[in-house]
Amino acid sequence: MARICELTGKGRQVGHNVSHANNKTKRTFLPNLQNVTLISDALGEGVKLRVSTHGLRSVEHVGGLDNWLLKTSDDKLSLRARRLKREVAKKAAA
């Protein structure tokens, strides 16, 4: 399973461990991913997603999962989130 946030697209970053002697060795910085169930008001059900804590705070700030999906561009979203966005848009239009 890829270590990528399904909502924000935030993934791993590469950097260095730097010792006291200034030796540099490669390391990775992984996002803080959590398995959460977010409630969709339009669909009336919970949706399980793997989201970074940064993404979770962003969703809460915007006012919920439905608002986040409608405002976010498709290139940042995962395949599951894009399908969910389509379903929410259909329900909102109806």
Q: Would you write up a description of this structure?
A:
This protein has a two-stranded antiparallel ribbon with strand order 1-2. Strands 3-4 form a two-stranded antiparallel ribbon. The mean pLDDT is 93. It contains three helices and four strands. The protein has helices at 53-62, 65-71, 79-93, and strands at 13-18, 24-29, 33-40, 45-52. The chain has 94 residues and is of the alpha+beta class. The radius of gyration is 17 Å and the shape is elongated. The termini are far apart.
Secondary structure: helix percent: 25-40%
Q: How many individual β-strands?
A: 4
Average pLDDT: 93
Taking all Cα atoms into account, the compactness measure Rg is 17 Å
Sheet bearing the most strands, described? 2 strands, antiparallel
The helix-strand sequence is: EEEEHHH
Observed structural traits:
single chain, 94 residues, alpha+beta, two-stranded antiparallel sheet, two-stranded antiparallel ribbon, 3 helices, elongated
